[in-house]
Design brief:
The chain is 50% helix and 0% strand. It has 2 domains: 50 residues; 38 residues, no CATH class. The longest helix is centred in the first third of the chain and has 44 residues. The radius of gyration is 27 Å and the shape is elongated. The chain is mainly alpha-helical. It contains 3 helices and no strands.
Length: 104
Amino acid sequence: MAPRRSTIFLGTVAGLSLGLAGMLLHAAAQERGARQALARKGALVRQLHLTDLCLCTEASYTRHPSMTDFPTPFQDAPMSFEHFPTGAVIQPPPHLVTRHGAHD
């Protein structure tokens, strides 16, 4: 004898509900562990007095845009093209773009 459609539906809903509950419990356990790791990393940052966030890992001048020199992206050759995609997204710091000695 074949099970009724309602039995199949309710069994599917019950199985999916158990799966959802399992995922929520797993996420709660992972969040607890992640909070502890974040607290340890925060303490390390305070202890080492780290200042800048590493935004990109491609090139030195895109890791910390505030700490770069203007010609650094062109260190291979003065007329070379930008070969890291991040250089097209991150603008140079304002103090490097303004002209020194220019009056408004």
